[in-house]
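REVIEWER CHECKLIST
Item 1: Sequence provided? yes
Item 2: Single chain? yes
Item 3: Sequence as submitted:
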Amino acid sequence: MMTRRDCAVALVSVGLTLGIGAAAQQKAALLPSSVFLWDQIPVKETAVGSSRQFLRAPTATLDELEIHVTTLKPGQTSHAPHQHANEELLIMKEGTVEALVNGEWKTVGTGSVIFQASNQLHGIRNIGTGPATYHVVNWSSPGMLQKKPQP
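Item 4: Structure as written out by the authors:
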């Protein structure tokens, strides 16, 4: 025989289960084929230069694809050397930077590509006399977002 307490616990459990299921179904829509026009992406000024956030969304094969463009003023760095589980590409649009790759600072110029492997210490700094602008393509493979620590 079920008691009132048993019924209450069962109702709460069913409610929580349904709520969690509904939240899981409200995931962001998958990114379809798209065009992002340079002059339509807002520019965010920063202390070290500027950035343009093109997209940050799940795709059919990735938990998240994130693309932004950073412009660094001469002598500036975007942030201190760091590492993370996801991999990323930097594609140099203009300028000259030094990139920390495999423990060495390497000079990288216009048109060059930098690959930053998973959990490898990396960083970038503008060593030129003008702005350094680079595209960043950053992705999270399936399951990686669940592994990231929450702030």
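Item 5: Key structural point noted by reviewer: The first helix runs from residue 4 to 25.
Item 6: Recommendation: ____
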